[in-house]
Amino acid sequence: MMNLLYNLTLSVAAIFLIPFFLGKIVFAGKYRRSAGPKFGLIPDRVFGAMKGSPRIWIHAVSVGEVTAAAPIISALKESCPEACIVLSTSTETGEEMARRLTAGAASHIYYPLDIPCVVRRVIDRVRPDIFVPVETEIWPNFIHTCRERGIPVVMVNGRISPRSFRRYRQTGFFWKGVMDMVDAAGVISAIDASRLEALGVEPSKIHVMGNAKHDSLAARADDALREEMEAMLDIDPDTPVFVAGSTHQGEEETVLKVYAGLLERYPSMLLIIVPRHPERGDAVFSAARAAGFSDCVSLRDIRNGERRAGRRIVIVDLIGELFRVYSLATVVFCGGSLVPRGGQNILEPAAWGTVVLYGPSMEDFRDERERLETAGGGITVRDGAEMLETILALMEDPEGRRSRGEAGRDIVASNRGAAGRYAGMIQNHLK
């Protein structure tokens, strides 16, 4: 009955959503690469590349999940080199990142829309021995079809944010039946475990294994990346750089005011703003001009051959560049936290040994916040005035700033090993 109700709701929603997405495809050019494959229109050559056994289908929704999947895939290929790993994503930006980070995957595909006939077609063509969703990506028709086909479902790097948990709880009567079909769930923390149990997963199926992103971040923080970015942006290693990463609407204006205050004391300082959604690049340019800064350049233009030529502000309007940009930072503000968005991943800048500032809204990253603050590598700021005061204090104490940053980097490095544990759990559930 619940499945029937779900599909009826899905059909009604499609009446309104299909015209919306068609408009996006025709007029904005979005979803053109992914629309067909999401309806199961995948070329035969993609399935022809799926060679080897066992066949492990890993699903990572977008960029963040791909970052977690990458070290798990590496661990699987190391322990089971003959395996055929199929990696699916839901977004085009996620697919781009997947191709860059997951050389161990035999095939990259788009995850099908949760329409019964589409799901059955794609699953029957991939023929996985196991399905592995990264974090908490559960689609009822897909999971139900896996159960019908006898395909184990093993969740890895599971996490449930407070907002997602509230939404799940509101329809808990429906999700319990779906969660019952998950064979095992590896989660990041004890909090995630308790939330998953409350949603209907049997406690015996839940295992706290840590965050695989720690493995990915520690491995990727390479000095060569920093040197490449310094050369691209024509930045001297001694130049102070303030990076505002994953910013949301309403935060850039605060960052620009803080930067104006920093320039009074450090006139050579550069500002790099990385909006959470790159398509907001034009809006960030407008905010900079309104704040009195006309000397801005976009990373897209620099990659297309334009030089920074001494301009003070770089706006990153490309996906997948944030981690590399963090390598340049003297100090970082991590967005989604001065506005009520729950925060963003503060471990990315910490992996580079940089002190991280963030606002009070960090509900989605409470564990990471606690660990960084305990070590001294993370600092909460309530507003722009406190941000400016904190950054000035850090700039005036380079040795203290360095030791704080190193403590944060040690937190990231000390939590490595989760990827191997997840790989072992996946192998244990293969037939």
Strand order of the largest sheet: 10-11-9-8-12-13-14
Large-scale geometry: globular
CATH superfamily placement of the largest domain: 3-Deoxy-D-manno-octulosonic-acid transferase, N-terminal domain
Mean pLDDT: 92
Please count the beta strands (DSSP E, at least 2 residues each). 14
Quaternary structure annotation: single chain
Major sheet size, sense and barrel closure: 7 strands, parallel
CATH topology of the largest domain: Rossmann fold
**Helix proportion of residues, in percent?**
40-55%
Radius of gyration: 22 Å
CATH architecture of the largest domain: 3-Layer(aba) Sandwich
Low-confidence stretches: none
Please, how many domains?
Answer: 2
Report the β-strand fraction as a percent range: 5-15%
Distance between the termini: 31 Å
So what's the CATH class of the largest domain? Alpha Beta
Structural class: alpha/beta
Please work out how many helical segments DSSP would assign: 21
What does this structure look like?
- This protein is α/β, with parallel strands linked by helices and 431 residues long.
- The chain folds into two domains: 29-211 and 416-428, 3-Deoxy-D-manno-octulosonic-acid transferase, N-terminal domain (Rossmann fold), CATH 3.40.50.11720; 222-412, Glycogen Phosphorylase B (Rossmann fold, 3-Layer(aba) Sandwich).
- The chain has 21 helices and 14 strands.
- It has helices at residues 2-28, 32-38, 44-48, 63-79, 92-101, 116-126, 140-149, 162-170, 172-179, 190-198, 213-220, 223-233, 252-265, 281-290, 299-303, 322-326, 347-350, 366-375, 384-395, 398-414, 418-428, and strands spanning 55-59, 84-89, 107-110, 130-133, 154-158, 184-187, 206-208, 241-247, 270-275, 296-298, 313-315, 331-334, 356-358, 378-380.
- The strands form three sheets. Strands 10-11-9-8-12-13-14 form a seven-stranded parallel sheet. A four-stranded parallel sheet has the order 3-2-1-4.
- It is globular.
